[in-house]
Amino acid sequence: MAKKILYQQTLTSTLEALGVTMEELRGNSRETKVVDARSLLAAQLKHHHGMLQIDIAALLGVTQVAVSKMLTRHRTMMLYNAPYRRKWQLVSQHSEERRHL
Fold first, then answer.
1. Is 56 a domain residue?
2. Which pLDDT band, with edges at 50, 70 and 90, does 98 fall under?
């Protein structure tokens, strides 16, 4: 139960930090901020919380293959895209601040 609350807090803080709604996240938008939010959230849940791809997929309402593609995109964007890296820092910082509230 505690893990589910932690996952929900991560989800909420990521959406708040990036200005994306849950409806946008679960929708089929290809808008950059929404695509980035999906990738960043999947990476947060995978790398910071050790969540399995199949569980991330269930949370986001997508397939495991979609989550795999999000994580691949995240790795590529972290290497080559400075604005994306700044979003990662923002999301990580925002998540950390919320954990201390």
1. yes
2. low
**pTM of the predicted model as reported, rounded to 2 decimal places:** 0.86
Kindly state whether residue 100 falls inside one of the protein's structural domains.
no
The gap from C-alpha 78 to its chain's centroid, in whole angstroms, comes to 13
* Vertex 48 angle, CA 2 and 8, to 5°: 40
H helix intervals, 2-81: 2-18, 22-26, 32-43, 53-60, 64-80
Residue 77 lies in domain: 12-93
Task: Give the H/E segment covering residue 94.
Answer: helix 82-99
Query: pLDDT tens digits, residue range 59-78?
Result: 888 999 999 999 999 999 99
Question: Do residues 38 and 70 touch, judged by C-beta distance below 8 A?
Answer: yes
